[in-house]
Design a protein that fits this description.
- The chain has a single domain, classed as 3-Layer(aba) Sandwich (Rossmann fold).
- The protein is built from eleven helices and six strands.
- 38% of the residues are buried.
- The mean pLDDT is 94.
Length: 235
Amino acid sequence: MFIMVDGVDGSGKSTVIGAWREMLTEKNQRLFDLKDFCKKNGRLPLPKDGADADVIFSGEPTSVWIGGAVREEMIKTGANYSASAIATAFSLDRLVLYSRFLNPLRASGKLIIQDRGVSSSIAYQPIQSPDIDLDFVLSLEGNQFALEHKPDVLLICQVTPETAIQRLSGRTDKKDNAIFERAEFLAKLAARYESDWFRELFEARGTKVMVFNGETDLVTMKKEARDKLQELLEM
C-alpha cells in the first residue's frame, strides 16, 4: 500500500506520521527513513538500500539533488524564482524519487508512507502566482508520472487556517521561512484541500481520499492516528 499524508503546514501531518512510526516499531516492522538516509549519504537511495525494510517512510521535496535546491534555495522568502520554475523543480524531484526508488519498492510489496507529494503541488502551486494554473501543474512530467502511479490512500489532515498559523508561529524546529507559510495563503490553501474537485481529481484515478481531524489535542491526535493506520492496514 502507498499512503500519502497531506494538508496545510501546521495541520498535524508530522504528528500523524510520528504516531505511525511508533506503532510500526512496536510491531517489530523494519523501517527505512528517506530523510535520514539522504542526510547520511548525500544522495537518493537505490532500491537495494531499502530492500530489507518492511516500511518505507518517504517525503517531498527530498533533501538532496533537486529537492535540496528546492528546500535550501527556491522556496525561501526573498528568493526570486518564478512560480513555473518552482513547480518544475518539484516535479523533477518527484520524477527522480519515484523512478529511482519508490516505484521499484512499491512493486516488491513494501508499505510506503509519504509526507506530501503530487497532491501538494496540485493544492499549493496554482495559487502561488497568476503566472501558472492547474493545467500547467498537471502538464509537468513528474506530476503526470506521479498521478499515473497514484497513492492508494490520500489522507488529508484538516485544521482551520487560524490553528495552522498558531502552530507555525510556535515552532522552534523549522527555520526555513518558507514562502507558503502566510495566513492569507493558508486560508486559500485549506479551501482547496477541502474542495470537491480536489477529492474527485484523485478518486477518479482510483485513490481513496480520507480526512483526518487535526484540531484535537496531541494525545487524542496520536490515538486517532494509530486507529486510522490500523483501519488502513485492514482494508
